What does this fold into?
Amino acid sequence: MDTAMCSLCKRREAFFFRPYSGEKLCRKCFARSIENKVRATIAKYGMLEYNDRIAVAVSGGKDSLSLLHILGKIEEDYPKASIVAVSVDEGIEGYRDEALKIAAENCEKLSIEHHVISFKEIYGYTLDEIVKRLKTRGKSDLTPCAYCGVLRRKALNIIARKVNADKLATAHTLDDETQTILLNILHGDILRIAREKPKTDESHPKLVRRIKPFCEIPEKETTLYAYVKKIRFQDKPCPYSSEALRNDIRVFLNRMEQKHSGVKFTIFNSAERIRQALKESSEKEALKECLECGEPTTQEICKACQMLHELES
Amino acid sequence: MDTAMCSLCKRREAFFFRPYSGEKLCRKCFARSIENKVRATIAKYGMLEYNDRIAVAVSGGKDSLSLLHILGKIEEDYPKASIVAVSVDEGIEGYRDEALKIAAENCEKLSIEHHVISFKEIYGYTLDEIVKRLKTRGKSDLTPCAYCGVLRRKALNIIARKVNADKLATAHTLDDETQTILLNILHGDILRIAREKPKTDESHPKLVRRIKPFCEIPEKETTLYAYVKKIRFQDKPCPYSSEALRNDIRVFLNRMEQKHSGVKFTIFNSAERIRQALKESSEKEALKECLECGEPTTQEICKACQMLHELES
It folds into this structure.
């Protein structure tokens, strides 16, 4: 291939081709384009107020650290806003401990305060202990991912509330979002499409509103951003990773995107329209507080407490 | 494998295992189960009235001939109902001519009248001629399938109206429907999900209402029905067949169904719920009559007339 010039600055050599826009970009313009896209996404969905305290969910992986870097940069323009990193220590030896160290390093470098909450302190078990329990009891109908997903979500909300955050930002990318959309259709879980939007509704005073500033950026590009910015991140996969169906969907979508570039954006937009229709047609589920832990839930006992009972029974 | 007994009659040897229900079925009970499923689907969606004149769209392939056999059987129970087969001759040498002969044979055997309408008589061109024209003019942005789909749809409506049909039954299976649902999501064509339901709305006096009595039956089983009933059908693929994206989706869905049996039903039900939400939230597009041919359309000039102009320009 000939070395091509950057379509934006027209001065530096391009290193990345963006198939769905036709742009060829140099490192500098690429990084700026990602930052601008995040600003545009925040504006489009009204994700942030000028004086928000923003908790960024940081796992130590490439996406969440890229997000922390970008939101840290954006926050500098808003003197009344503040930013804080929050992490969940599920208790996965040889994996999360390493990731948390990397997360802490990044926070220090960026001078962003960092708070960690652990499964052990709020649930009494590490994920390692939960998995061991599941195995010895032969209760294997739910995967570790199913447990971890529910428990992590609750933990993130608790830590975000503890640090007085107005918004909880997660690094879900366009890929995560489109996979989840198809997953929900394949599971018949249509209401979840309505619920999982780029900025969640204000539904309960104890539920911190979640925002996804990367929801319109392909994972390939959030990863590339981390490389370009020389961000140190953990790239080991989780030892319990077992989402077989999601993985099949990921492979399918990547294949589709390769053949028909832009198809992930189209799916994302389709879901936006389905969401709109569902919103207009359906009643919202009212949130109450879990009778056991007091956290917001649609049921009497929240899913996390139910799972822990199941484990102990 | 041990030879197993049929789960229904418990007398004859099973020859088919239905993964999503766990049933093992003999030939006789299998065929009856398909016929019963068609009756149940017709009842569920209120597809037919006791005195309907039903046009069955027959291509000469396995699905449409299975449907003709089953609807012919059901119609016998309704003295005021009548049934007629309609076919479209697109003009594909060595393919459709053969299929139409087979369709005619089946109709004769079943004593069902058979009407054929051709692209040549209503549009002035056979599909072969259209494809040749597209090639020589280098107008290859649309595939033959894209042309054929639009023109066939219009032709079917014209012939159904000509034979005074109240309903036009097509043999779209669960597989066709779930492929179309994903295709529409990947194309961002959400309104089409709302429109393409098991029984279309009464939207214009010149548009015959379409019904899909096979919409909840996997293609595997409509095919098997044709074999069990020793129905003669054409099984050559169309020489112009080129729906690459649909084919990728088909492969993906079959893979998913193999791993998670019943997933196609779940997708179908997801679409029903999306449809419901869209119906409640959105205004219906009003149908007018095409300024050129007088057929119902949402635009000034119908898509078929637009395509023919494009071809002649």
Remarks:
- The domain at 27-312 of chain B is CATH 3.40.50.620 (Rossmann fold).
